[in-house]
UniProtKB/TrEMBL annotation:
Keywords: DNA-binding, Phosphoprotein, Transcription, Transcription regulation, Two-component regulatory system. This is Stage 0 sporulation protein A homolog. It comes from Clostridium frigidicarnis. One of its GO terms (molecular function) is transcription cis-regulatory region binding. InterPro entries: CheY-like_superfamily, OmpR/PhoB-type_DNA-bd, Sig_transdc_resp-reg_receiver, WalR-like, WH-like_DNA-bd_sf. CDD domains: REC_OmpR, trans_reg_C. The keyword Phosphoprotein applies.
Amino acid sequence: MCNRLLVVEDDKDIAFMLRDYLSKENYEVLIANNGQEGLKLVRENQVSLILLDVMMPVMDGYETLSNIREFSNVPVIMLTAKGQQFDKVIGFKKGCDDYIVKPFDLVELTLRVKAILRRGSINVTSNDLVKVYKDLKINKEDYSVVKSGVDIKLTKKEFDILALLVWNQDRIYSSQTIYEQVWNESYLDNDNSVITHMRNLREKIGDRVKESIYIKTIWGVGYKVEKDI
């Protein structure tokens, strides 16, 4: 069964070009011409990855992505004519997985799609109740964390943050995305809950911000756990 991709792009020429090219790469491609149509298709279909334009009428890409992250962790690649660092930071904070600037090379875009889908398939096949990351053994069944044979006592929120990152290695999570997924509430810009819990979590597992062993800080963007090779 081929992967189903969703292209959310208001420029029909670009949307059809992407559909035609990616279809030849054995992907099924759905098209939405604005953010609202895209949200509807994500809710109604099992989508493997979204190519999401930033500048669109009705609902721009950033708002669309925020809405998607309320109910789905589907990988998202942002497409934009803007290349400023500021725009990239916004995208990663909202929860995108990659970012490519127009005009883009179709071969490069396809390679990025394949890389993200390959990473996702690894995560899915290993999505069991227990994971070992470096010297940590994390068990979702009893919410236990063991480091080199020693039990680490975490709160439920600390455990959920660690599990979210370890089960989704190499993916950057902003404070907003972590808060909305772990607390299951809307995020407020002045809320320091994630920072506080992250500091406590790091202290308990013996991690450091500047010399990170487990959780890497991507300054101005968020946090990630690098893939354990």
